[in-house]
UniProtKB/TrEMBL annotation:
Domain named HTH cro/C1-type: residues: 17-72
Gene3D superfamilies cross-referenced by the UniProt entry: lambda repressor-like DNA-binding domains (1.10.260.40)
Database matches in Pfam families: DUF5753, HTH_3
Lineage: Bacteria, Bacillati, Actinomycetota, Actinomycetes, Streptosporangiales
Protein name per UniProt: Helix-turn-helix transcriptional regulator
Superkingdom as given in the UniProt entry: Bacteria
Species of the source: Actinomadura meridiana
Alphabetized InterPro entries for the sequence: Cro/C1-type_HTH, DUF5753, Lambda_DNA-bd_dom_sf
Amino acid sequence: MATRNSKSPRTFLGKEIQRAREAKGITRDALAKAVYVSESLVRSWERGLRLPKPDHLKAVEKVLGFGNGEDAGILCRIREDLINDAVPQEWFGRWQEVEGQATELWAFQAFVLPGLLQTEGYATAVLHASHHNADAEEEIATRLERQKILDQEDPPTLVALIAEATLRNNMGGKKVMREQLLHLVEMASRENVIIQVIPAESEVCAGFTGPFVVANFDGGDDVAYVDNAISGDVIEDAAAVARLRRMFNIFRADALRAQESIEFILRLADELWTE
């Protein structure tokens, strides 16, 4: 596994694309238009966050002058020889960057509310409990910092499917939980945030094996993040990501509609979490 400070094969390829583009005096936007993708996707390539598809890479080579002589096909060879043989979990520990580049995020949680929607009190309770009273202040600050992507100029759309149990699980006491549920309602009023609750009586609950998030990129392949009690894994395998997308769609089909979910959350806040 590549360490955080080492240059991974994906990053190396991205730097080569950027270096060649700048040597030609071509802007990122011009390159994007020439190969029929978005400027944000080219930026993700150059930062090593997204891996160019072979067809896109061939088009990039043609625009940047890699089409003749010894340089012909060099970027494609880097992709094939270095990246395809690399350890697949290069992004471990870099999910925050992935979130920042995504255009849409589909999150499912069965036990704990999504980090992007947690209040400071709720996050503090969850992280302190998971660290067995160890110092979790840095992770709390990081989690709250991550939430700023929902406030940026062009924020991603977040669709959060939340199992009813997450609204009932006591994380920090009644005051914390009431503030958290009211915060969910406030977040759900935003145009880029959709929150839907899956009722406990739904039969799809039998399929809840753990939380996951699927990130979609403008013009790029989906990437997923699967969390567990030990670590989190970034998933890029197309078949595995497609399976998670299918699970998400099945769960969503049994979820309450957005307005019904807001009303349900408010009712639970009054019934369960009023001191």
